Amino acid sequence: MSAVLHPGAVPTTAPPPSPPVPPAPPVFGLRLATGLAGVLLAVLVAGLNENITKVALADIRGAMGITRDDASWLVALYAAASVSAMAFAPWCSVTFSLRRLTAAAIIVCMAAGLLCPLAPNLSVLVFLRVVQGAAGGALPPMLMTVALRFLPPNIKLYGLGGYALSATFGPSLGTPLAAFWTEYLGWQWAFWQIIPGSIVALLMVSWGLPQDPLRLDRLRQFDWRGLLLGLPAISMLVVGLLQGERLAWFASPLICVLLGGGFLLLLSFLINEWSHPLPFFKLQLLSRRNLSHALLTLGGVLFVLLAVILIPSSYLAQVHAYRPLQTAPVMLMVALPQLIALPLVAALCNIRAVDCRWVLAIGLAMLALSCMLGARMSPDSIRTHFYLLQAVQIFAQPMAVIPLLLLATTGLAPQDGPFASAWFNTIKGMSAVVATGVLDALITRRNHFHSTVLSDRLGNLPISVDVPGLAQRMHAQVVTLTSSDLYLTVAAIALAMIVIIPILPTRVYPPRAA
Fold first, then answer.
1. Mean pLDDT across the stretch 465-492?
2. Which is higher by pLDDT, 166 or 504?
3. Average pLDDT, rounded, for the chain
4. Is pLDDT larger for residue 213 or for residue 173?
5. Which of 102, 347, 402, 465 stands 20 to 30 A from 319 (CA)?
6. Residue pLDDT, tens place only, 409-420
7. How many other C-beta atoms can be found within 10 angstroms of the C-beta atom of residue 464?
């Protein structure tokens, strides 16, 4: 029955229904802490899987009958899948939920690791490694997203410090663990070592992380053009950079196609992302000076961190025939103390009176000092020569990484967290690839230069003498001089990053509860 209006009454309309109140964020406690620790464990295990298989590649090749060229494709395609997943995983985590995507990535990574040693041929092994690379690459963005979303402001920096372990602790631990598996348990464990940690991480994530609802409505605005441009762009660039030195760079038509085509596709991808309503990458975030500086400096820092692992390992192997087991103490010298150094540096940056830009500058200066000390090496330098260098890096490495995380994430709106994670992790993955390609090229060029100079000097001697072991001594001298050049180059990069600190980033303060 309709209501009767009295004469003179003004008709009224019912107010519109109020929008639903969003659910309160979960309170940080034991459950969320367990979930965060589970994601951290999964990221470390996946990162160790990549580094260990690289170090143990010679044993894997020998056991499975793989040529050196074929093995290089295993590494390149794994890296291409991993970096590509870092770019697109944050979008997927919002759409399909953080917990579902993290758990699925752990399961796939673990299953592929189980099957890799059982692969009947190279094609199956390549397929399994590509799948594992994609699953492993999806995990680091989840760790940053969890830290930004769930951690209370007062301890958020400690969670980001846990993320920094993937850049400092994990790579240095790869050589010791690879040595242990291959020397004592068998080459298969270079793949199988991922299984125990993944099972524990899966249980922690499944219990600890809250279950978000599916947001399949985002698929109506899915950025198909971005995916079709960005995925091949990143993959082509990664493969081209990692295979460039082996195939003589631009003397190879394949490398020309990979790098040239990848660059054009990447440019088209970025143009598309600028105007898409639901992009994978939000280019507008780059207008934030601190984020742009953090991304730029991150590339240089990762170049330095990769070089200070590669140089001593390569030198000791080539000059003194060290196996990974004998090189392990050098790596452990900086890896294990990270478990103490990282929280201490995070605590330092969490003090309001401390300007994290100064912490960053000191960390970079310490890295440069370590490299300049390393450049004083000689062909007689053995493992003990590198202990002092590694000791300097114990605090230098976290001091160069944690301030970047603080600069990149401070002041971000919650909805921008996945975009920042996509930027940071993709730059992180791509920087490691660029560093590998550049270092390979530098090593080859400097080896050729020093070989030519030493050969000319020997040829100009007035008396031709037959010195026993001359070729071996020349090789040791060439490797030593090249390693010294690399150390000086890396030191210059670290110092150059200090120069831009007073120019680009602005002062930020550690997050605090309102």
1. 86
2. 504
3. 87
4. 213
5. 465
6. 888 877 888 888
7. 7
Q: 455 or 195, which is more confident?
A: 195
Helix (H, G, I), strand (E, B) or coil at 400: helix
Within 8 A by CB and 6+ apart from 14, the residues are none
CA distance 439 to 485: 11
Burial (CB count within 10 angstroms: exposed 0-12, middle 13-18, buried 19+), residue 251: exposed
d(CA 67, CA 69) in angstroms, rounded, equals 5
Q: Is the dihedral of CA 251, 253, 258, 262 positive or negative?
A: positive
Q: Which amino acid is at 43?
A: V
The candidate with the shortest Cα–Cα distance to 193, out of 44, 356, 22, 4, is 44
The proportion of the chain whose per-residue pLDDT surpasses 70, expressed as a percent, equals 93
Convert the pLDDT of each residue in 124-137 to its tens digit: 999 999 999 999 99
Euclidean distance between CA atoms 318 and 34, whole angstroms: 44
Answer whether 89's CB lies under 8 Å from 138's CB. Answer: yes
* 75-133 pLDDT, tens digit each: 999 999 999 999 999 999 999 999 999 999 999 999 999 999 999 999 999 999 999 99
Whether 366 and 395 have beta carbons less than 8 Å apart is answered as: yes
Residues in the chain: 514
Instruction: Give residue 41's pLDDT.
Output: 93
Token pair 């100009």 in the structure block, residue: 460
Compute how many other C-beta atoms are within 10 angstroms of the C-beta atom of residue 457: 9
* 77 touches 13 (CB < 8 A): no
Q: How far apart, in whole angstroms, are the C-alpha atoms of residue 76 and residue 163?
A: 24
- DSSP string of 13-76, one letter each residue: -PPPPPPPPPPPPPPPSHHHHHHHHHHHHHHHHHHHHHHHHHHTHHHHHHHHT--HHHHHHHHH
Q: Which helix (H) or strand (E) holds 422?
A: helix 417-459
Q: What is the Cα 24 distance to its own chain's centre? A: 33
What is the full DSSP assignment across 83-99?
A: HHHHHHHHHHHHHH-HH
Position 329 pLDDT exceeds 90: no
Please give the structure tokens belonging to residue 352: 């309001």
